[in-house]
Amino acid sequence: MDKLKNKLKMSYFIVNKIYLFLIFVFLTIEDLTLGFYYFLISIFIYIWKTFKSKVPIETDRKFESKTFVYKKAKNKNLKLDIWLPLKANKYHPLVFFCHGGGWISGFRNQPNNVSWCKYLTSKGFAVASIDYRYGYRNSMEDILSDYTDALDYVKTNSKSLSIDKNNIVLMGLSAGGHLSLLYSTYYTYNGNKERIKGIKAIVAYYAPTDLNDIFISKNKSIFARFATKQTLKGAPIEERGVYDYYSPINWVSKQMVPCLIAHGKFDTTVPFESSVKFVKKLKEFEIKYTFLIHKKGGHSFDTKFKDIATVNILERTARYIKKVTEF
Hints:
By secondary structure, this protein is of the alpha/beta class. The chain contains 13 helices and 8 strands.
């Protein structure tokens, strides 16, 4: 029975919420006004869930962030938020945090990202949470340049920001995790010590490590496929070389820094197998890693689930960052 339920949850019909569309069509056919109200209620519920989304660990202190413009790109100011712990240290170890959203959506100060920043700050870390340009109007190279420029900004201004530039962990969720892994694997592979200087480890939650995996038959997410096609300007069958080039798994080397990888086994947006493959690659090159698995979790399990397994993964993540930064 459980296998049947899990199979249904992973089906194309449920993953892409086709049933909601069918209900809308049925109600609209029966009564146009009823269909319109259903549409409005659905939008309200979606917005409400988005703004209620946060990690399941409340912080008992109030933390505030400061916003900085790190770059101007095509008449747009790209910003980052700096969160500092209340403890009066001169310089704090930094978690450089990158949001998800399939490279085409999301923003640094949406509730789930803010909750992560507050949680990490409560553990004594400084956090830099960044925005970047979206893939539907820009290329993956543009996005990567934004990521690099934001990190450079933080390092260059580390003293005034009270940040220890030699004690940094790159962290990202989904697409943000992909950017963190791609930055670190690429520059370690190419031996660019200046770019990787001060980076102690990578923390990647449910990140696509082989972009071709988004299009395997087991993965049913229309959004994931659409977002990847938009950002890479084509499908794998047309742009296989591009997909391989921007896949972190293809840049892993013996110089790679330690990694913490977290993923839910029932992820219907980024296949769980993508993280399994990446961990095997790390093991092959004898890179230190920690692999945290949520046995019942899907995509964004960290802000959708409130169970003890999720809390445990969050706490283990904080302990991991503390250990690698020797904080």
